[in-house]
Amino acid sequence: MRTVDLIQKKRDGLELSTEEIQWLIDGYVDGSVPDYQMSALAMAIYFRGMSTREISDLTMAMVHSGDEIDLSAIPGIKVDKHSTGGVGDKVTLILAPLVASFGVPVAKMSGRGLGHTGGTLDKLESIKGYKIEVNQEDFIKQVQETGIAVIGQSDNLVKADKLLYALRDVTATVDIIPLIASSVMSKKIAAGADAILLDVTVGEGAFMKNIEDARILAQTMVDLGKAVGRKTVAVLTDMSQPVGRAIGNRLEILEALEILQGKGREDVSEFICELAQIMLSLANVEKSLEEVHQHLVNGAALKKFEEMVVAQGGDLDDLYRSVQVSHQVDVLAEEEGYISALPALEFGLFAMKLGAGRAVKTDELDYETGIVFHKKVGEAVSPGQAIATIYANENISENMLTNFRKNVKIEAERVNTKEILEIIS
Where is the Pyrimidine nucleoside phosphorylase C-terminal domain (predicted)? Predict the structure, then answer.
């Protein structure tokens, strides 16, 4: 085979065979297929797409390109969860211990944030001492003993995806369904869970800007999971505004603790309880929403989160400390009405400029900075009321405040919101 012939074949809208896809992925991992040819193939896929069979073959070729985790030593049905990314997305921090508090093992490998999207690992690393690099043996032992672990992905897991994602990121080929689906599902399949919940975010703060594309992506990933014997459900969730109140690593840890103590915003708590109910159902544990919510109120979920933090070297005293910044600036409303929009992308980028996110992978994070919203979409405001507080280690200029305010949309009529838009199983 020749790589150039396969690029031309896909460029012309033809299907690649199973053998051709495997040959390309093997060659890319061993270096015989160079970056410039793989980027040409990615662009051909971007414009020509892939059939369901091609996506399945690509996914499994990537799974087999590195280590595959065997979780069979952990008793019970192991469940995992993945989000396609968003702003203020601290869901895993609450959802994983909440599910584990019912005796369902959660063995999860998470990722870092890039650009306007936050990463679960970055949030956890804002806790002093928390180790995200755990070897496979210790990972399995921790889940056996505590029922939960959230760690970083091994360098040897899905090698092809690690290489291909970095390439897609710099060649404008990230937001294409076949490559997103194969990237997500190769990691989830290789990580070894028996059941998978996919949180597919929709809106201007997500990769999928409209519900039609999100539905196609979700269905593609559900089909991939089921094809290899993994119980898989996808939930389409709203990412038009940030999730919850906080954006920023330490700030999101503190909001997660509020919710785990049963004190968080009712809408976010209810949303996470709905996701937990689905994950528990995947493990054949049927619970009502009231029973799930009780584990937030009675401290069972919080206890499980603390157990995970301690098991991974985290300092419990540091876990509960407040943020440490040199500047806290309130953003005040200038008119009366209802919040009608808080564009997730714009506020994610604003927080990134404060140091809460990375423009490129090598950027250093400031774990303390970010934004806390006191008002969300659908809530009333009056002049002089605080809409949000900015936490920064640099002066917040009047120009920055003006840019912040212009993205807060206030209307006379109330807008209703809904976190879960659709469930695909």
Answer: 338-411
